[in-house]
Amino acid sequence: MLHIVHHNDYVAPPPKRGSFAFDKYRLVIEAVKELSEQHTAYAPHAMERHWLEAVHDPDYVDQVLSSSVPREKERRIGFPVSTEIARRVRFTSGGTWLAAQLALKHGYAANSAGGSHHALADTGAGYCVFNDLAVSANRLIAEGDVQRILILDLDVHQGDGTASLLAGRSDIMTASIHAEKNFPVRKARSTIDIGLKDGTDDVEYLKILSGHLPAMLDEFEPDLLYYQAGVDPHVDDRLGRLAVTDEGLAERDRYVVRQARRRNIPVASALGGGYGQDHMAVARRHAVSMLVMAEENNRF
Fold first, then answer.
1. Which helix (H) or strand (E) holds 209?
2. CB neighbours (10 Å) of residue 273?
3. Which of 42, 162, 180, 257 is most deeply buried (CB count within 10 A of its CB)?
4. Between β-strands 267-270 and 108-111, what pairing exists: parallel, antiparallel or unpaired?
5. Against a cut of 0.90, is the pTM above it?
6. What is the pLDDT of residues 193-230, one digit of tens each?
7. Are 252 and 196 a contacting pair, CB within 8 Å?
């Protein structure tokens, strides 16, 4: 059974400027329904403003929620922040928080959006407005749901915003395995950063992951694993630079869940990146990723 968080407002009207494919989030939930009847969907609440302001600069939060983001910040984000997009990013942040609540009950749960790991304290960047991972992790610890969280970022791009927003915290560990020569040009400092060379294939990718993840889990002993499960390491991804296949992504996701659940650590995943001209093909990669992880969780 896949426990998946989804909200109709994840799909915002596409802005007049920018190339981000907002229809992906509708296609993802459609692909999940097509591929499996074994899923339960949950609708999140919008993340409360004070939790956004606990991580992001209050002036920036106000700019987003009032749809008055300066043009230079919108250029960094990649699209204008309309009223609909401002509403959307509150729900995606609430969805990542709800996925963690469900994971604590069921072992694994997924947000069908989120993973906005480039958003910084006072600006968005790289198609990311609010950093749902950082906001949700901070809230979970502040409210006493968990004491220690590992954020594992396997998107092809480094989680620079997450690393910056959570730098110096002893209760949240950030780990990013990414394409070294990909965006962002200037990397932040995660707790652990592993940059991969262009063209890294399944064998090398899984070797590196298996050489580091068990030690992270054993040494940090998190109460929850937040997993940025981007599918953009795929060989056909438009923005990827790596050469991981469908089979490689599936084995990656099984491995992450297996290692966590063997240690009785719940896993909550966020969608992360995936880009291509064929939006349905990208959506199916995301759907398969979540279903593979749910299947692996059912073994425990």
1. helix 202-220
2. 26
3. 162
4. parallel
5. yes
6. 999 999 999 999 999 999 999 999 999 999 999 999 99
7. no
